Amino acid sequence: MGTREGSDEAYVVGLCDRILGESALPQHRFDWLLGDPGAGGRRVRLPVDAYWPGHQLVVEYRELQHDQPVPHFDKPDRRTVSGVHRGEQRALYDARREEEIPAHGLRLVVIRPADLDADGRGLLRRTEEADIAVLERILARKSDEDRVVDTFRTWLLAEGWTPVDPTDRWTDLEAVRGEQRLICEAKGRTSEKGIDADTGYGQLLRRMTIQDPATRYALVVPSSSVKAATRVPVHVRQLLRVDVYEVTDDNRVRQLPD
Questions:
Q1: Residue from 101, 81, 90, 93 nearest 41 by CA
Q2: Which domains, from first to last, does the chain contain?
Q3: What confidence tens digit (pLDDT) does each residue in 110-126 have?
């Protein structure tokens, strides 16, 4: 496989970078994702293949040795700090990632060679167009609200904003740019457009706990809900520092004029 930079893992992460509009932190280590105690009780931090902070997303690219015995990688005659051979430890640590990463509020996506254009040995043929189409589906969220949030987050990154941990844990998305702060409530496609828009405004109102003019609020809606979201008069939205953003069906973002 050569160096990590030329590996299939790096190829997949690079394609994900293009789809997400953000560069990953490869081989990132979290303080709370730890291996088993070694000599002297020390526990090392386990790496993840790639982490996109702006998307709160972790991707693990799991080659064949993660799912089937491969003596070259497993080294069954050697015991690790976990008391098992490397193949069993790999499965143990994969399971730990699957438990700990979502428990800490991050989304975990696992990608395997069989998901992409690979040969019988699990090596990728690297047909970019086909692989990107598959990865777009794999990385897509399940609900339309998730689509709206992810699209808006990607747009914010392109506009120079940095997503941060929300002050209120129920906030869909919060971002900063210099002295500016944007607190966002997102809605997806729904049959109750008016009720959802009114609920979104109410949720933003509850988060207006400071009178900092550098803080603004965003109601982010799909095209189908724009009419409902703009029923609140412009002068009221200006007074409350609320901006309305539209996420179109083809995943473009535009801020609605006041």
A1: 81
A2: 4-139 (3.40.960), 144-255 (3.40.1350.10)
A3: 999 999 999 988 899 99
